[in-house]
C-alpha cells in the first residue's frame, strides 16, 4: 500500500461535502485541507499510517477531535477511513507566530511584540487552567487573530479523558521545542509524559525561534532526531541576544530543569507590564516559514498545520 495520500478520501468527502478546498499541509502520514462546506469554513485533517514507528499519524486526527470535544469545543466531527482517521473542525483565521514576526527576524533591532507574546502565554495558560497540556507547542500552532491567540493542533494534548480507541503513547514533539526531560525520556523509552513545565519550555523556544530564527540548542541542521534529542539532553544551548524583559523571560522559560521555569501567570504579567513601557512590534508581513534559509530550521516539520 502506498505511503502517500493524493486526494481527499471518499469517506471523508461524504462527510464534509466541500464546495471548494485547498491543501494546506501535506506531510508523511497526514494531510490537511482548508475547505468550504455547507456549514462554513473548516479544517479537514486526514491521517494514515506509513510505517510501524509512525503509526500514531493514522490516529492523530481522531485523537485531537476527542480532545476538542472533551474541552467542550463545538462543531467537531471525526471518524475512520480505510487507512486511518479524520477530523473536521472550524477553521481559525489569523496569522501564525512565525510569519507574524518576520519583521523581527529581518531587523534584530526592531521592537519586541510584547502584546502578541502575552497573548500566546495567555492562550497556553487557559489550556492549562482547563486541566490539559498541549504537548506540541510550536510557532505554527499559535494563531494570532484580532487580539487573541488560538492554540491549534491538540493531537498530543494530555489531561482529560480521550477516546481509548484513538489514543497512543506520547511520542515527543518537534525537537526544536522539546524540553530536556521529554527528550531524555523519549530516548530512553520511546515515549514521555508531557507536562505544563515542558509546555513552558516549548513556548519559550517558539518565542525565541520566531523572534530570531535561532533554535535553542546546537546540532546540525539535518541531524537525525536521536542526535537532536541527545544535544537537548546534553544542554548544548545556543547563545542568543534578545532585549529587555523579553530576553530575560525567554531565558528562564528555557531553563534546563523544569522547576526553574516560570509559571505562565508570571510570564503573562511580565509581558503585559512591558506592553505599557515598550513599543509593540510591526504588523505581520506574511512570510512563508518554508522559505527560511539554511541554519534556521524553523517550521521544517511542523506536525499538524491546519487552522483547527
Automatic annotation (TrEMBL):
UniProt KW DNA repair keyword: no
PANTHER family found in the cross-reference section: SERINE/THREONINE-PROTEIN KINASE TNNI3K-RELATED
Presence of keyword Kinase: yes
Keyword list, A-Z: Kinase, Serine/threonine-protein kinase, Transferase
Disordered, as annotated region: 275-308
Pfam families referenced in this protein's UniProt entry, alphabetically: Pkinase
Organism this protein belongs to: Streptomyces formicae
Taxonomic lineage from the root: Bacteria, Bacillati, Actinomycetota, Actinomycetes, Kitasatosporales
Entry-linked InterPro entries: Kinase-like_dom_sf, Prot_kinase_dom, Ser/Thr_Kinases-Pseudokinases
Domain (Protein kinase) ranges: 18-275
Protein name: Serine/threonine protein kinase
GO molecular function terms listed in the Swiss-Prot or TrEMBL record: ATP binding; protein serine/threonine kinase activity
Amino acid at each position: 500500500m502506498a505511503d502517500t495520500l493524493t486526494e481527499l478520501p471518499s469517506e471523508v468527502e461524504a462527510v464534509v461535502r466541500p464546495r471548494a478546498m485547498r491543501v494546506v499541509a501535506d506531510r508523511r502520514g497526514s494531510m490537511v485541507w482548508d475547505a468550504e462546506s455547507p456549514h462554513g469554513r473548516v479544517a479537514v485533517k486526514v491521517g494514515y499510517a506509513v510505517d510501524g514507528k509512525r503509526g500514531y499519524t493514522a490516529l492523530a486526527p481522531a485523537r485531537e477531535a476527542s480532545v476538542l470535544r472533551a474541552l467542550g469545543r463545538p462543531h467537531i466531527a471525526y471518524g475512520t477511513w480505510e487507512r486511518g482517521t479524520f477530523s473536521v473542525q472550524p477553521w481559525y483565521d489569523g496569522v501564525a507566530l512565525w510569519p507574524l514576526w518576520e519583521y523581527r527576524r529581518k531587523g534584530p533591532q526592531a521592537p519586541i511584540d510584547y502584546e502578541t507574546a502575552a497573548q500566546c502565554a495567555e492562550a497556553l495558560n487557559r489550556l492549562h487552567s482547563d486541566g490539559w497540556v498541549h504537548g506540541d507547542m510550536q510557532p505554527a500552532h499559535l494563531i494570532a487573530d484580532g487580539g487573541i491567540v488560538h492554540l491549534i493542533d491538540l493531537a498530543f494534548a494530555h489531561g482529560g479523558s480521550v477516546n481509548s480507541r484513538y489514543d497512543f503513547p506520547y511520542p515527543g514533539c518537534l525537537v526544536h521545542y522539546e524540553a530536556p526531560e521529554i527528550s531524555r525520556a523519549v530516548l530512553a523509552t520511546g515515549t514521555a509524559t508531557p507536562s505544563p513545565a515542558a509546555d513552558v519550555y516549548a513556548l519559550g523556544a517558539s518565542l525565541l525561534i520566531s523572534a530570531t530564527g535561532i533554535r535553542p540548542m546546537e546540532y546540525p541542521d539535518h541531524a537525525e532526531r536521536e542526535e537532536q534529542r541527545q544535544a537537548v539532553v546534553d544542554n548544548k544551548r545556543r547563545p542568543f541576544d534578545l532585549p529587555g524583559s523579553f530576553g530575560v523571560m525567554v531565558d528562564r522559560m528555557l531553563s534546563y530543569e523544569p522547576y526553574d521555569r516560570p509559571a505562565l501567570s508570571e510570564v503573562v504579567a511580565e509581558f503585559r507590564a512591558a506592553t505599557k513601557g515598550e513599543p509593540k512590534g510591526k504588523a505581520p508581513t506574511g512570510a512563508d516559514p518554508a522559505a527560511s534559509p539554511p541554519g534556521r530550521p524553523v517550521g521544517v516539520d511542523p506536525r499538524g498545520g491546519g487552522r483547527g
